[in-house]
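One thing: could you explain this record?
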Amino acid sequence: MEALLSVGGSIASAVLDNLVSQVTSDAIQQFERHSGLQDDLRKLRTIMLRTRFILKSAEKRRTKDDDLAQILQELKDTAYDAEDLLDEFEYQVLRQNAKSQENQRGSFLSSSFTLARNVFNRDGDAVAKVREVMGRLDSIANDMEKVFRLLDLDDEGKKYQRSARRETSSFLTEPEVFGREKEKEQVIKLLLNSEDATEPGDDLIRVCSKRQKKDSISVLPVAGIGGIGKTTLTQLIYNDPKVNGYFDLKIWVCVSDNFDVKRLTKEIIGERLCDHLNLNRLQEILKEKIMSKRFLLVLDDIWNDDCNEWHRLCAPLRSGLQGSKILITTRSQKVAKMMGTMEAVFLKGLANDAYWEFFRRQAFGSQNPKEHPELEAIGRKIAEGLRGSPLAAKTLGGLLNLDLDERRWRTIMDSKIWQLKQGEDDIMPVLQFSYQYLPGYLKQCVAYCSVFSKDYAYTKDQLVQVWMAQGFIVPQGNVRIEEVGSEYFHDLLGRSFFQHSRKDVYVMHDLIHDLVQSVSVDVHVRIEDGKWPEIPSRLRHLSISTKNLEPSKLMDFGKYKNLRTLVFDNVYDTNFCFVLDCLFTVSTKIRVLKLWSYRIKELPENIGNLKHLRYLDISSTNIRRLPESLCNLYNLQVLNISGCPIENFPTCVTNLVKLRELKADEDTICKLADIGKLTSLQELRVFKVVKQRGHKIEELKDMIQLHGRICIKNLESIESKEEASQAKLNNKQCLDELALVWNIDRGISSGNDDEVLEGLKPHSNLRRLEIRNYGGVRFPSWLEPQSLKNLKAICLENMQSCAQLPSLVQLPLLEILRITNCPTLRGLACLPPSLRELSLENVGIDMLPESWDGDHGFTDESSMTQHSRSSSRTSSISHMRICRCPNLVNLEQWLLSHHLPAIRFLRIIDCQKVVRLPMERFKDFLSLEYLTIMDCPLLPSPVQLILPSSLQELTLDSCGHLDESLPGCLHSLTSLTWLKLNRCPHVTSLPGEVLGHMIALRVLIIRDCGELRSLGNLRALRSLETLHIGRCPRLTVLANEEEQGEGSARLLFLHTDDTALVKVLFSTITPPSLEALEIIDSTELILFAGEEQLWLQGLKSLRWLRLVNCNNLQSLPTELQSLSTLRLLEITNCPEIRSLPEKGLPSSLEKLHFDNCHPVLTAQLQSHREMMKKSHNVIS
């Protein structure tokens, strides 16, 4: 263990950084002035600075000295004790402040601090405690100096020497590479893709000309966590014949953590050079070497994220012929983003089948796993937990291969991977290098994640809050501490310690979690599944997730007085509250407390003992009452009571002046009176105005730290502009979004809405404004550019009296305008060119607003002069939705392609009076991708409708005579992926020559087209995945058997009401990939009879079969049992089916739904479902 740099030293240094910041805080300085501890605290500060200086100096060297490791551990313990001591001082400041406010005696008084000192001294001698910590820190600093002096005499510790670098070469070390074919082809394609590549035989003038056009060389990053196979994949690519044939020169350099530009330049040159050459001469030599060649340079294992150093290295590399590439491998997404000029290739774990094959080779060698079935089962379980990491497979597989003994294999399976003996090139040492490379403040953050389970879903905000609670985040000037923590998180994300899972949710790879556990084993314990591991004496962070709760064992944790984290996940016992009561009596240093169980009904009163508590999460418990002692938790920063049936808050809950986040349901928050006293709150999602003390709008006046979004409801409870202005919204400079809402059920307006809205002027930093249920007739004067210069979105809803919207054209950043249910709004002024989204629903306008200045009023493009074209301003609108606007008649004058060049989404829905659209000009909307025209019954037959080839989704639904343009308007739609034709009575056919052009079509939906008689060659739709045909009674002609195509090859979902169509469509080819078949509203008596049963049996991938509203259907298909992949069967409203087929149902079924079936069939289905339960199939 490299004690100083890997774990102990850096974390101890980070803790000392926090301490130095804490001991110089305002609260501590105020305390020392009034407590008689000035001299002692100043000495403590000096000793901390000295200790930190020694430690920082020591970080320039590396050693494996065990004595030093012990000293560092003692340093951490002492630093934590000092942190707790200072925390108690700060607590007294907060407590006395709360008492002073209760007594209405103002802020800090000297007499108050005399009281604070006396109270503190009752718990122990403060002077003695400070001096004890000083003595320990001073002694440790002296010990460290002595050790370093001794180490200076030893060659091992003289000066900082980098550890031996892990060296790689271009030679493939693996005899066979598994499961990377797709990634290999992807990277090779990117490397060989160079449209303007220069050939070695090109003349010099042409070469120079091309080189001048080239600003920088192409850099392709391959990124992923350690051990995922980046180097192996790169070796495979480097030695590929296609790569060898394309590049004139190939160079491989292993960079590792020593990014020295001069060293790397020498290695790229690859020749023996004089040591005295400076960087300039080296770069000249490199330039000469590559300038007439197309080269591939591999830089393996890069850690450096200094862009200046990177640009210095690349300076001469730009002289190579075009088509030259640099391929880098890195664990850091930040490095990949900084260095890459191409989209990075991120490697994930190997797919299950390929991974097992690789793991099997490592574990069994030449042995056949089938000859050792018990070992194969163990091996598969071990492999499953490695999440596709090739290096982990080599490490564990190699250990297993030493002895094919079941007992040994079970021992390895039950062990933590980091507890197993490994060489320096095995998985844990390789991953640990990622950890060692972190700065100390990030090490403690990532190590803390060991309190969470492997499959835990992290959110950034929650992680930052617990890091704050533990004191891991050091304040940086006036920067909000949550923002500093967010930078920490994104740094770790960029270094692949976290991976993005879904929106705002992140996960940690299992092997990274194993690494985190290995570096925190001395202070963290997580108890799962009733397994109680050995508890370290220095335990500080405890997480328990087990159904087998033993109160006696829990009581044992009472002897660990230094606990800082206590997490109970779905843990409960009838004596649970008593256990907590005992723990809170002894373990009073807890900073993070999470209690997650719906069966918890109360908190013990002595939770007030936890004076260090900063994070309390009791969400989704059944707690109805918060104890009064909760109000003594003056350090509390986060209180999460969401999902709790809280009936009311304690009397003095507003004493929690450091509370930064209150997570609670809307109704719960609105029960809190005097919320305005919680001036540290960073977020208040909703505030309901009530005409009673503690709930009026004035509560918001001092809450100047509010960030994010606030929705203020019940504005009808405000009586005047003066009262509204008491909210002082104009001093909330950190608010991004503001929603102002009147109660929609209030009845008749009081008539003061105009005044109230005028008094609610927000700060000019506001980005989004929503106004709902406003009864006034005019908009406020502050809705103008000078007051809202940063506004990006305006949403207006349910305004029954406003007739005119003020001009928005001068709002420079406005991107979104949504107006809903404003039937009296007749006019919209000119819109700003910055607008990107316009949505109008149930708005009374009879013409659309101008989105530009200059040429409004021209009837068509041909009427405009060249001068008016050049002087007009184009719009940035890309999304436009016009819905239920009953007065709109003509859209032709507004939809002009040269003014809407960016339009991508256009939806015109339920505009009953619209009679004119620019049919012949749709082809000019070159960016249009999504077009929907629905419920516009008065649209005439177009002279010519040609749609742009950019179109990806098209929906025509009840659009008057517009459908007469079908199928002609579908020509050339080669990018179309979605086509829906619904209620199109004039379409009679879709011939194959039209469908054949739609090579990208994935979804085809045709419904209620009563005159549709024929469909062309659907097999030509090579990308088709979903086909939905229904209520087309005249449709009888489909593709002939002679017509060719592979349109069924990818079909996944088929919905129809007539299986005769299915028979014609797939008479010669059964769709091998079909996963879901829905037959709904069919009038047939029999399904899949005769030869059709062969087609049904050919559905080898079918997982989902639904029969719904088939009122005439007499029986189920006789060969239903042959569908061996079927997982779900639904039979609903099919009353004439009297029994199951003789051969029964498939054994693969997991879900069986039925409703409104014949009584006999219902009984059989119920019996079958009971049988499935007994065989443990999944039922829902």
Remarks:
- The longest helix spans residues 66-102.
- Residues 846 and 888 are 4 Å apart (CA to CA).
